[in-house]
């Protein structure tokens, strides 16, 4: 095990702050020894934001050029939390310099770039992992346990959605999120989480059909200040066209069944509702991120509803909560930010060389990020061919 690990975050925006906070909290969750951790630098083009984020989360310094993170001898681990199109260049440079990399989802913008990143990760001796944080939601992990231990059994069909409303307002300023072709909008942004969630529960998606997109707001005003995440800032009267999707819907086939998935960034009144219902051999279950501390189970016996809908408050007997929450009692609640902390701890366990059996479940591989983009491309192909079925590239 290394004696010391220096940590940096590139990108101090919405998710960058979640990474900064997670590295700070990671040693407080999970169990077992870790190397000494040093929170070294927060890097962002916006120097004031980088400095403020470093100060808030206890990092020793800030940088404005990611190349300085690549070159820094006191940094071993780096979160890459900038716009998707920037991931490849930064990740490849970090891996070449021997840094361990935790890259945000989606892996990048295109399947070709994702393949190159998988190759760079395979060539490197460093750990390269992807931030599919929703796998760390205790409710989703609990449903997966119920599927795998036979309580629910194999998944026959799925209904899944990810409703967000960050783009509802026509005055929400233009940002990197609205640039690119159909499929790079809601589908890449929140859809990458949703396809991963469905695959986490039901297994790999082999084909998609019925692909469709809708863009309701076709131009957006340019911001007059720095935009972080979904924030609104003062805008100019100059507009730029929106190229990508506000909404996407599609059907999926997975090894034991099929389902319907929909994602939106204009689902008015739903700031952050990822939800999934799984219908399985021995019952059904559902989870909705509006109520992250609970799941709903409905077990059947011989095909008849036996228990009815039962709401289960998550507690220490469910994944992540014991050893994961400071107050690990039923009903205390768990939130999206906790997922980033569990993820950071899992990454540290792996870098420290702790066996998987003694650590939190490993983070997603880059190859899973490539697969997610192949699913996305199949949706795009389906949508541009009148919704016909398309295989997901192997
Ligand atoms: N896992 C999750 O739940 C989750 C949530 C939100 C975002 N994300 C992902 O995180 C990434 C960032 O999203 P966000 O919402 O935080 O974006 P953001 O726009 O809020 O922040 C990005 C930051 O990167 C900075 N930046 C841009 N170019 C840079 C450069 N060359 N060097 C250094 N900094 C630079 C910007 O100044 C900005 O502050 C995306 O890949 C997104 O998909 C993941």
From TrEMBL:
Q: Does the keyword Oxidoreductase apply?
A: yes
Among Gene3D superfamilies, the record links this protein to: Dihydrodipicolinate Reductase, domain 2, NAD(P)-binding Rossmann-like Domain
Question: Keywords in UniProt for this one?
Answer: NAD, Oxidoreductase
Domain named GFO/IDH/MocA-like oxidoreductase: which ranges? 142-285
> Which is one Pfam family of this protein?
GFO_IDH_MocA
Looking at the record, the residues that make up the Gfo/Idh/MocA-like oxidoreductase N-terminal domain are 6-131
Q: What is this protein called?
A: Gfo/Idh/MocA family oxidoreductase
The organism is: Brevibacterium spongiae
Tell me the classification of the organism that encodes this protein: Bacteria, Bacillati, Actinomycetota, Actinomycetes, Micrococcales
């Amino acid at each position: 095990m290394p004696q010391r690990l220096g940590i940096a975050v590139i990108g101090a925006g919405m998710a960058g702050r979640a990474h900064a906070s997670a590295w700070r909290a990671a040693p407080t969750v999970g169990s077992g020894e870790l190397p000494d951790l040093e929170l070294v630098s927060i890097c962002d083009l916006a120097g004031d934001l980088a400095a403020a984020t470093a100060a808030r989360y206890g990092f020793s310094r800030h940088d404005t050029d990611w190349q300085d993170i690549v070159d820094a001898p006191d940094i071993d681990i780096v979160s890459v939390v900038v716009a998707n199109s920037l991931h490849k260049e930064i990740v490849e440079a970090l891996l070449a310099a021997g840094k361990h990399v935790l890259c945000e989802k989606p892996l990048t913008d295109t399947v070709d770039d994702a393949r190159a990143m998988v190759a760079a990760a395979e060539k490197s001796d460093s750990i390269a992992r992807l931030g599919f944080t929703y796998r760390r939601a205790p409710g989703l992990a609990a449903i997966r346990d119920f599927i795998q231990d036979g309580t629910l059994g194999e998944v026959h069909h799925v209904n899944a959605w990810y409703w967000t409303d960050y783009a509802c307002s026509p005055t929400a300023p233009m940002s990197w999120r609205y640039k690119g072709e159909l499929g790079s909008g809601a589908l890449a942004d929140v859809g990458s989480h949703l396809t991963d969630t469905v695959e986490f529960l039901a297994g790999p998606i082999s084909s998609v059909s019925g692909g469709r997109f809708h863009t309701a707001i076709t131009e957006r005003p340019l911001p007059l200040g720095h935009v972080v995440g979904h924030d609104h800032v003062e805008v100019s009267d100059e507009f730029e066209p929106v190229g990508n999707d506000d909404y996407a819907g599609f059907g999926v086939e997975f090894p034991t069944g099929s389902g319907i998935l929909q994602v939106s960034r204009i689902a008015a009144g739903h700031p952050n509702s990822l939800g999934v219902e799984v219908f399985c051999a021995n019952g059904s279950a559902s989870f909705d991120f509006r109520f992250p501390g609970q799941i709903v189970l409905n077990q059947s016996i011989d095909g008849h509803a036996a228990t009815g809908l039962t709401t289960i408050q998550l507690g220490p007997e469910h994944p992540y909560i014991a050893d994961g929450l400071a107050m690990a009692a039923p009903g205390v609640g768990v939130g999206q930010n906790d997922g980033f902390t569990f993820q950071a701890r899992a990454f540290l366990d792996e870098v420290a060389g702790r066996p998987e059996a003694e650590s939190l479940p490993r983070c997603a591989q880059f190859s899973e990020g490539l697969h997610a983009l192949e699913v996305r491309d199949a949706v795009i192909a389906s949508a541009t061919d009148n919704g016909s079925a398309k295989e997901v590239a192997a």
